[in-house]
């Protein structure tokens, strides 16, 4: 039962992150998730300072707001400062993270808080953190509800806005020319990234989120040449990573998040070597076939 | 030499566009007739792409106004199509040729609606028109440059617009494909559509276009090809890159007085 709950939580997060990651890597913004994971620190501190509460909804709102601010700033420096996207991401999140660190040190006396308690949620504790209603009924692990809701919202968003996301990612100028606002879809996507990453940090920890945001989509990218299939393969990979990662961790009694992230990396390596179209081995074979025509 | 027309499809009034406060288009004032094949000619950096982009509302900092079919862009967007320069997108994208052509239908579909069978038929038909129907399912990174250009053209055709802007549709395209494309554009203009094309090859301007716009930051000329495509105006546009211009001068003379002696002279190596 516990195993199943952890694998389910891992899968829900992996699918949500992977779906978004597909669009992020195609927009060459893969590091946005990493940026948000650091940049939300001041949001968490401020949320705590203003409300004095450490419950997760307050934290999520604080972190989510800063997450969206992060994506605004990244876009702002990129557009107005004519900075490369990666440089703009780098400047933004280090700066916001620094602000968070300063806030913590200034209010060190009052704040019983560091990024550990929010950023490094631990997937192993999923079965212990139960949602108990006011009437005392036990509803099951809280994390499953949160990540489940996030995933449903995401799937609705991507299936309703699929063609707009597809077009604004591939050819923004043409999208604007036919009247589809690239800015609106950019911020909708970034809002979704903020929501998903922040909710997932709290559930399974930041490292796993950053890994799941990039590795499965990158793997799927090597395996297919069709965006819909890429989204599908990413989701399947998410489930595989979660299940294999869990049992791997159980087997050598290690960190579950670490094992899952490692499996994600291993699958990427496998695809890199073995992919029928883009894999190293396939490329090598093709080269040999050209050098040595058949029949000789 | 700037000729104005009545009932223009496109009216550009006092348009100035700047990037970072540096103007790249200065006080452009022009009107274009309907149903013509129109070439925009000028050196690199002249602002040709910028002119098209600002007509399509893609450049933020501009003054003056643009009217299309005597209306604002927003009201007539679905009657206008745009083919960006091919290098403006990353072709290493998980999409097939048909996927890209289907994008031409998105504007008509509106929010949240998916392409239907009818849209796919139009898209396939457009691919066939540009001779790419055999490549419908091919991933776009596996197409050659010229084939990618044709996919872009098919996407514009799928839009079934009345006015087309094309930014260098002949860049990196072989002679046969260029002929095929120009045939398609001719047919379109014969049907009453207006096609506006950024073009670099001065040699073929007189053959291809009914109307020419000469641009170099400001508008040097706009009018019927025979009146505007002259040595003096080209000189003004290109700022006296003489070797090139004397060739074109030869070319113009040859077009106008097609006699044997002139032809031989133009062909002789210098
Ligand atoms: N995004 C931009 N930011 C700043 N300057 C720009 C931008 N795009 C174009 N420019 C400048 O505007 C001028 C006109 O550029 P434009 O792309 O319109 O030229 P073009 O006539 O299309 O040239 P080409 O023949 O090379 O395509 C150039 O000097 C260019 O440097
Ligand atoms: Mg250009």
TrEMBL record, chain A:
It is found in: Cell membrane. The chain crosses the membrane at residues 6-26, 33-51, 57-77, 89-109, 143-162, 174-198, 204-223, 230-250, 256-282. SUPFAM superfamilies: ABC transporter involved in vitamin B12 uptake, BtuC. Keywords: Cell membrane, Membrane, Transmembrane, Transmembrane helix, Transport. The lineage of its organism: Bacteria, Pseudomonadati, Bacteroidota, Cytophagia, Cytophagales. Belongs to the ABC-3 integral membrane protein family. CDD domains: TM_ABC_iron-siderophores_like (cd06550). GO terms for cellular component: ATP-binding cassette (ABC) transporter complex. GO terms for biological process: response to zinc ion; transmembrane transport. The keyword ATP-binding does not apply. It is a multi-pass membrane protein. InterPro entries: ABC_BtuC-like, ABC_TroCD. The keyword NADP does not apply. It comes from Fulvivirga marina. This is Metal ABC transporter permease.
TrEMBL record, chain B:
Residues 10-242 form the ABC transporter domain. The keyword Transport applies. One of its GO terms (molecular function) is ATP hydrolysis activity. InterPro entries: AAA+_ATPase, ABC_transporter-like_ATP-bd, ABC_transporter-like_CS, Metal_Ion_Import_ABC, P-loop_NTPase. Pfam families: ABC_tran. Keywords: ATP-binding, Nucleotide-binding, Transport. Signal peptide: none annotated. It comes from the Bacteria. PANTHER family: IRON TRANSPORT SYSTEM ATP-BINDING PROTEIN HI_0361-RELATED, METAL TRANSPORT SYSTEM ATP-BINDING PROTEIN TM_0124-RELATED. Belongs to the ABC transporter superfamily. This is Metal ABC transporter ATP-binding protein. The lineage of its organism: Bacteria, Pseudomonadati, Bacteroidota, Cytophagia, Cytophagales.
